Amino acid sequence: MSRTFSELGETRHLKTHLGHIIPLVLILTLVAVSLEGCGLGSEDVPFTVTITNDTPNTIVDHSYFSTVHSSRGVGAVVLRPGRSFKEPEYANEGVDRDRITSLSGKTLGCFPFQFSRNAPQPFYVKVTQMVPCRPSKHLRDDWPSVKY
User: Fold this and answer.
1) Which residues lie closer than 8 Å to 29 by C-beta, 6 or more apart?
2) Which residues of 61-84 are buried (b: 16+ CB within 10 A; e: fewer)?
3) Which of 19, 48, 98, 132 is paired with 91 by a 20 to 30 Å CA distance?
4) pTM surpassing 0.90?
5) In a shared domain, residues 32 and 7
6) CA distances from 45 to 12, 92, 119 (A)
7) Do 31 and 54 fall within a single domain?
8) pLDDT(4) > 80
């Protein structure tokens, strides 16, 4: 079975074309696997932080991720003394600032939550651990300090 000159040219062209595509696909696959290992595509799987009001006053936690409905809207949780609620948090997202206020709306402090990994469970935070509120997208270290 003999081939014409034109058929041989098409075969060579196809082999040359595939010869360029296969290495490109391999390179893109390696890049995708490398980026996945770097944590750039965090899986957005929440873990739970339990926040407890250990003060003698009722406070309001204005949380970014809370889906708890209250008289102050979604994301605002009223906590009487001794009460707790569970809040979802995410690793590798930067600072998720919960603002803590009095019932009258005066800012008392913040929880600048930042986690490089999912916190061990169960994980508890007390209102008395709040710190002054400061604008920041990323902290140098996780807050609160977590022993992974």
Assistant:
1) none
2) bbbbebeeeeeeeebbbbbeeeeb
3) 132
4) no
5) yes
6) 49, 11, 12
7) no
8) no
Q: Are residues 65 and 108 in the same domain?
A: yes
pLDDT tens for 124-148 read 999 999 999 887 766 677 878 776 5
pLDDT in tens, 79-115: 999 999 998 888 887 788 889 999 999 999 998 888 8
User: Does one domain contain both 36 and 66?
Assistant: no
* 92: in domain: yes
Residue with tokens 């409905």: 69
Looking at the structure, do residues 30 and 53 belong to the same domain, yes or no? no
pLDDT tens across 57-70, in order?
999 998 765 545 54
Beta bridge partner(s), residue 59: 79, 102
**Is residue 144 domain-resident?**
no
